[in-house]
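Practice record 12: protein with PMV.
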Amino acid sequence: MTDDRIGRAEACANIALSKYWGKSPRGDNLTAVPSLSLTLDGLRTRTEVQLDRTLSTDEVWLNDKRLEGEEARRVVDLLDRLRQRRGTADRARVTTKNDFPTAAGLASSASGFAALAVAASQALGLDLSSSELSAEARRSSASAARSLFGGFAELPAEADSALEVAPPGHWDVAMLVAIVDAAKKPVGSTQGMLHTQRTSPLYGGWLEAAPKVHLEVREGVLARDFARVATAMEHGARLMHATMMTSEPAVLYLRGTTVELMHEITERRRRGSPEAYTMDAGPNVKLLTERAHVAEAERFLREFPGVLGVLVCRPGPPASRLVLDGELAQARRTEAE
Ligand code: PMV
C-alpha cells in the first residue's frame, strides 16, 4: 500500500447564525432556505481514508467504534459517489476522530462529512475544488457544505455548494457552547425536518421569514454589527424552533435550562452585554459574543444552574488535507537537494 492511496483531512464544525430547516422539493438534499454559519475552531474532526483492495466492504470507525447500519451507510454513500467519479470500486477503511465530546450532543456530521469528502477525494486521487467538495459533503449532510470554508460561510437556498462570506479574521467574535443535556438527541435533524415539513402549520411562514432573517444576518456579519446579528440570529432560532414544536407530534428540543438561558441572555443584552443565543436540533445553547467579552460570558454560563459544561470556540479555518508522512519525507528530500 502506497501513501497515494491514503487521504487525511481535518475539518471544524460550524454553527448556523441563520439556519436552514427543511429540504427543497427539488430533492438531492438541497435546502429549502438559505443559511449562514460560523466555522468553529476547537470542534475538529480528523479523518483518514485508506483504500484497500483486500476489503470486501467499507469499514467505518468513529472514535474507535465501528459504525453499522444507517450511520455507516451515509459514509458509504459519499464514498460511492466519489468512487464513481474516479471509476473504481476499491473499498476503504475510514477512521475518524472528533476532538470534542461526541456525547455532548453536538452535531458532528458537519465536520465529519467535510473531513470525509476531503480525505476520500485525496485517497482516490481526485483533484476537486472547494465548491465540488462542498457539494459532495452537502449531499450527505447539508450543514457539512459550509464546513469546507473557514470563518463565515453561506449555503444559499437550493444551492449545490456553500461559499465563503468572510474569512476567520474578519470579525473578532467567539461562540460559547453551553451543554445543557449530553444525551443523544431523540429525533435526528433529517427526520425532524421532514416531519416538520409534513405536519407543522407554521412551515409556510418559516419558508417566508427565513430568507429575510438570513439577509439581516449576512448584512450584520459583513458590517460587523453585533446588535444587528444578535437580533436577527435570535429571531431566526425562535422561528425555527416554533415551527418544529408545532409539528404533530412535537419536535421539541428545548429543555427548561435552554429557556431560562434565553431569558437571561436577553436581559443581559438589554443591560449592555454583547451576548446572543441560538439553538440547533438539540437543547444546548450557543452564545455568540465579542472577543473582549469571552471571559465574562464564560463565567456567566459556568455558574448558570443546569449548565453541565462550556466549550469556547473562535472562528475556525477551512477544511484541509493533512500532509502525509510520505509527502513530508518527499518535501524534505526536495528541500535538501
Ligand atoms: O444538515 P444537518 O442534517 O446537519 O441539519 C442542520 C440543521 C441545523 O443545524 C438546525 C441548522 C443549520 O443550518 O445548521
